Batch of 2 targets.
Target 1
Amino acid sequence: MEHYIPLFLTKYNYWVYTTLMMIGLWAMIAKNNLVKKIVGMNIFQTAIILFYVSIGAKYGATIPIIEHGAGHGAEAAIRAADYINPLPHVLMLTAIVVSVATLGVALALVINIHRRHHTLEEDEILEQLREP
Amino acid sequence: MSEQFPALVVIGPLLAALMVSVAGWLRPRLCLPLALLGLGIAAAASTGLLAQVLAHGPISYRLGGWPPPWGIVYHLDNLNAVVAALVSWVALVNLVAAHRAVLTDYPDKIGPFYTLYVLAVTGMLGMVVTGDAFNLYVLLEITSLTGYALIGLGGGRAPLASLNYLFLGTIGASFYLLGVGYLYIVTGSLNMADLARLLAPLHGSLALTAAFAITLVGLWMKMAFFPLHAWLPNAYGFAPSPAASLLAPLMTKVMVYVMIRVMISVFTVEFILREVLLSQFVVWLAVAAMVGGALMALGQRDLKRMLAYIVVAEVGYMVGGAWLGNRLAMTGAILHIINDAVMTFCVFLAAGCIFQKRRGTAFEDLQGLFKKMPWTMAALAAGALAVIGVPPTCGFFSKWYLIRGGLEAGHWGFVAGLIFSSLVNVVLFFRVFEIAFFEPLDHGHGHGETGGAVALTEAPLSMLLPLMAAALGLLALGLATGPLVERVILPIIPAGLG
């Protein structure tokens, strides 16, 4: 048991992202309202963005901006441990754009569905589709 | 000029998509020529690349001049050069055929349609040529988002089908992204070749197995591999026919290519051969896909939906072949990517031609079509023979390799499943032909303004010529199997496969 407590405490970022992901997945599967499903999808995507952001972080490190003229030769050498890893963060800028675009397309489709069926409850839509 | 081909394959259609969207506002008449120009550039460049790769070996193209582990590389070898040529040519031929359908069905959406079409092809080509795992995710989402929008353009149930596809597709892409994240944690790299080098000493670690499983589940959702196929039949069945004949042949095939690329170029064969239990499991899933897809196709009363379920079964062939773990089966899987793209294209385009004239593809709409639309039906018959696997059409040869691979692996379930699904295909298509050949055209049934039976004629020439090209392509590919396997496919089968 003692073995698991540090595992839980030191890797808490993984637990947070997994929990968020499952909340999103649950909303996508269990909710009946299409907009709630879309909210669930967004939570799901955000969980993965958080995961990436957390893996770039380091204890006691700062933002990766290097001053000009800070020194020459060996003094100018950069210690990677002093700076957080910017690459996962930059990747997530792209992923955020993708998730915003997905949200846009999903909402456009929902508007289209609402115009046709005058409801966003999935069971009511399916019932309308079954009738004729 | 020719050394810039890898960039041109993607930049050409990308710029064309931008110009098409502007032309959509100002001069809708210019949309088609601009789209043709963009895809024409891509087709020419990808053909040139295929010739270069075959003559001089793999090409690495550094975007912006950044060296590989840091910058994004477009890496082309035999495998993706041939898939890129395939994607760009099928998309170009389909664009010619799409013209009439767009004019009649979506006269007010010409600009958006062509923009989305060209962007979707840009994304697919980018996915095929890229050598960077994260870049692949972005291009995957470009293709998927444009695909959702293209499907959503259709009437009736299309927006709901598209939204369901969007939900499942987003989960799939997110899983892929998560898998790439795990790989990044253990290696600190995103370049595929670099990943393969850094992962080699880590084989057997739990993080790597987790990354592999997560990535695969994501890709399987995108390619509609059996238990994850639920989105496909509705999405492709209700999509506008020009969109269906673009996405159904290409999207699933490109995803199978990505899976094979991830298997042989990132995780490498040595890693996969260690996971014997996983391989067994995946091959049995593929058997379930072949049998399940075929049985569900039997239950359909609509040509397009029937074809959509056949696509589910075909995905099973390719995934199973890739996982059987020997050279013959892998050859069959790669050959089937090429063949299946052309034959699915042929049958979906024929369904599009029928839809154009009959305004529906339910089985009642097919009555008497052999008399009224002989050329369309002849092409559908050619496509059907290829899907069934009758020589000398191309479908026979890839199935031949797959079956031999299955026998060599001693996997009788796979062989039996493949033969069973081929036999069901016979039943499926001959039922269609029986209706179209023997049942007379129901005079009272005609939809739309054509007034039914009397006015029903052959599809317009702009649709018929691309369809003929596809049907002839089936024969040509079948006859070219020997050199295709010898020169293109065998050199890229990894040596580690038994």
Note: The radius of gyration of chain B is 22 Å.
Target 2
Amino acid sequence: MVQYPGLPLDLSFAALSDATRRGIIDQLGRGDASITSLADKFQMTLTGMKKHIQVLERAGLVVTQKVGRVRTCKLGKRGLKVEAEWIEAHRKLFEGRFEALDEIISEMKQEGSDD
Amino acid sequence: MTEQVNSADGAQNRTSVERRGDRELLVTRIFNAPPSTVYKAWSRPELFQRWWVPKSVSGVSLVSCDMDVRTGGKYRLEFGADGSDTMAFYGKYLEVVPNERIVWTNDEGEEGAITTVTFEDQGGRTLLKFHEVYPSNEALEEALQGSAAALPEQLEQLDELLSA
């Protein structure tokens, strides 16, 4: 009940068209992670995870950095945008709702209805 | 990032939205009225339908709103966008404690979120918490897509970039 209802959404993003890749973005939104730990988390082979990360990296959604033998992934600027947009869309929706709710509450208080 | 909203009696209330833990959305807001009043505005269909679909979501309006707000009761909201097909959102109330909390399912999708809204008394004002938990990746994605309507051009550019 939180989504914008009834709006046709045919936005398709190649990098984000895959549930696992969206999951990776979601995961990295909560903290950086190594490719190995992501592979574990999503129950995939290291090779499979590397491919996903490559696609996300090319799209600028993820950046990786090699420290010693561990390659760490974090959200790139675009990835942060996806995250921020998600929050922002919800904030707008709820702010709109709650402003309207404020008005109704004021009305109710004026009427002093207590049935 | 929150905005100040001046309510009728001048107090400043802020809507805060955050993602928490695994696929959770938490929205909090203070209202200048006791929980019984806020609860009433949330549980009576004739009042609920006046605010649940904000004017800012243009082109979409609530066509019908049936709510039987009690534990085990059901709700069904139907939206229409510019004379096109209506779209229904429906589910059941898992738990209803008047003036305190309402918990409901969102059954229109494959795996809907469980939504909990609580009303806490804070000296005559109400701290409202709207908490939504998505059961899976797919469910979160639906929410993400739901908000994708508001995605800016950057993401369209991303699409172009990727299909190039």
Note: The longest helix of chain A spans residues 77-111.
